[in-house]
Amino acid sequence: MEILVEHKRILEEAERFARTELENDPTGHDWWHVRRVVRMAERLAAQEGADAFICALAALLHDVADEKLNESKESGLRKADDWLDGQPLDEESRRHVLEIIATMSYNAGANPPMRTLEGQVVQDADRLDAIGAIAIARTFLYAGWIGHPIYDPDLPPRDAMTPKEYRRDKSTAINHFYEKLLKLKDKINTASAREIAEERHRYMEQYVERFLSEWEGRS
Fold first, then answer.
1. How big is the chain by its Cα radius of gyration, in Å?
2. Selection from 36, 33, 11 nearest residue 23 by Cα
3. What integer best gives the mean pLDDT of the chain?
4. What would the pLDDT profile of 126-174 be if each residue is shown by its tens digit?
5. How far, CA to CA in Å, does 195 sit from each of 34, 64, 124, 185?
6. Distance of alpha carbon 64 from its chain centroid, rounded?
7. Which of 54, 105, 177, 206 is buried deepest, with most CB atoms within 10 A?
């Protein structure tokens, strides 16, 4: 689906806004993460027949509103909403974008399924950046930022947790693979993304297996 000229201008403004907000982020949710998610969302939108403009705009704004990077979920969404208010965007598209970014996060697996194809595409694009080689690097970066150790055999992965526990309780970088990353493959929405997720998932499994083998001195 071709993006209209006026929509291209909005996307250019959204890119500048997201880059300004996130270019110095130290958590792995920086501008380069956003750029990867946008490119993957564009790829998946083309393959799945989704609205490319809505997908790209939601992908550009998704971490501007992320509650991890704001005082609260509400304040993050308000920041995105205020920016959208200043754009020549119809109300339906504005509501659609806000709905996507409000419900696409993992949130300990507690969020409901995405309602629209565009939401599914953007969520898949974001989740694919949490599966694979780059995801491994981002996991250790984020763990260091929040003060979690690389690994602690006396601190087992949590099987079930509330969103609050997921955000605040003590864990480790390796536990994060079991608590989230290795679960994402089965939570992908679209056929196009599932194919990518399968290969990236295998890579992460091999990495964790190798990590634990080296930890125990077997490799």
1. 18
2. 33
3. 92
4. 999 999 999 999 999 999 999 999 999 999 998 877 777 777 788 999 9
5. 21, 28, 11, 9
6. 12
7. 54
Using one digit for the tens of pLDDT, what is the confidence trace for 199-211? 999 999 999 999 9
- CB atoms inside a 10 Å sphere around CB 126: 26
Q: Which residue has tokens 């403004």? A: 13
On whether the CB atoms of residues 44 and 190 are closer than 8 A, the answer is: yes
Cα gap 96→86, rounded to integer Å: 16
Q: Which fold has domain 5-215?
A: Hypothetical protein af1432 (1.10.3210)
Distance between CA atoms of residues 7 and 5, nearest Å: 5
Tell me what pLDDT residue 169 has: 80
Residue 150's Cα: distance from chain center in Å?
21
Which of these, 208, 203, 209, lies nearest to 131 by C-alpha position? 203
Is 90 exceeded by the pLDDT of residue 5? no
Domain spans, the chain:
5-215
